[in-house]
Amino acid sequence: MIENPDRNRKRWEDSFLEEIERARIEIELADKAFQWMKNDPEAVDAALSRMEASVEHYNYLIKQAKQLGISLDEKTLYSRLLKT
Fold first, then answer.
1. What sign does the dihedral 33-35-36-42 (CA atoms) show?
2. What pTM value is reported for the model?
3. Which end of the chain has a smaller Cβ tally under 10 Å, C or N?
């Protein structure tokens, strides 16, 4: 039996949105790591690098989603994430 292409697209979009949510969570974790490490200069540098990388990744995913025509409004994003 061949699957409906629209169904495959929806699954793919859902996976993409999940990846965006994971990237958003990574930004939050990087921010917390930065806050915890304020007294250690090496740890601060590592936390800043982590933050920069996570923000770059998130921005890349958002840009890709827009180019692929994936809806990124908050209502759609949260409703899809809650369904999984």
1. positive
2. 0.72
3. N
Nearest to 60 by CA among 31, 13, 19, 28: 19
Which amino acid appears at position 42 of this protein? Answer: E
Block residue for tokens 């793919």: 12
Q: Which long-range contacts (CB under 8 A, 24 or more apart) does 46-53 make?
A: 51/27
* Alpha helices, H only, the chain: 5-36, 41-67, 74-83
Phi, psi of 61, deg, nearest 5: -65, -40
pLDDT tens track of the chain, all 84 residues?
445 556 787 888 888 888 998 999 999 998 888 887 777 888 888 888 999 999 999 999 988 888 888 877 666 666 655 554
